[in-house]
């Protein structure tokens, strides 16, 4: 842990809620909204989310699986996300979600017209904005948890039908 946590305090609640309540509470609400209000399909949502988790190295995020209506992605899905370029387990939307997440996190200046042509052939502008906001949330908060050493203690509360 890279943040001093008082004895008896939950690390996540302390860092996100008590240390910076004006920011942490809003950040937690944004993070939860990504799950509660997403209109994206489960596979493309999880492909982008897991690719960011893999890039960030957030242990909790890599273990987490989003559940919707009692459904989760298959156990092999995370391995397919790592191999998004070559896997035959993905349709075009799922592959593009993983690619977009990776580019967003590692080479956002390299997102070119060719990529946007492929992206807009499969996603609406609404979906692209939603996916971008989701990726931004996962990148920021997963990285925060990893950098501060909270990712081994992270437990998110279950709220909303899509968590």
Structure description:
With 163 residues, this protein is mainly alpha-helical. It contains 8 helices and no strands. The longest helix has 23 residues, at 125-147. The protein is globular, with a radius of gyration of 16 Å. The chain starts with 10 loop residues before the first helix and ends in a 16-residue tail after the last helix.
What is the mean predicted local confidence, pLDDT?
90
Largest sheet, if any? none
List unreliable stretches of 5+ residues. Answer: 156-163
Beta-strand content: under 5%
- Rg from Cα: 16 Å
Overall number of strands: 0
Bin the helical content: 55-70%
Question: In terms of structural class, how would the helical and strand content be classed?
Answer: mainly alpha
- Order of helical and strand elements: HHHHHHHH
Count up the helices. Answer: 8
Amino-to-carboxy terminus distance = 27 Å
Would you summarize the structure shown here?
The protein is an all-alpha fold and 163 residues long. Helices cover 61% and strands 0% of the residues. The chain has eight helices and no strands.
């Amino acid at each position: 842990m890279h943040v001093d946590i008082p004895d008896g305090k939950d690390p996540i609640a302390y860092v996100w809620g008590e240390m910076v309540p004006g920011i942490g509470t809003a950040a937690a609400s944004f993070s939860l909204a990504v799950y509660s209000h997403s209109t994206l399909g489960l596979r493309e949502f999880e492909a982008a989310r897991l690719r960011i988790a893999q890039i960030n190295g957030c242990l909790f995020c890599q273990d987490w699986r989003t559940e919707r209506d009692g459904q989760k992605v298959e156990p092999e899905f995370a391995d397919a996300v790592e191999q998004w370029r070559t896997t035959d387990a993905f349709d075009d939307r799922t592959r593009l979600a993983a690619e977009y997440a990776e580019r967003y996190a590692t080479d956002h200046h390299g997102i070119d017209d060719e990529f946007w042509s492929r992206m807009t052939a499969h996603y609406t502008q609404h979906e692209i904005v939603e996916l971008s906001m989701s990726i931004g949330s996962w990148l920021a908060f997963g990285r925060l948890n990893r950098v501060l050493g909270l990712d081994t203690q992270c437990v998110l509360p279950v709220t909303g039908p899509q968590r």
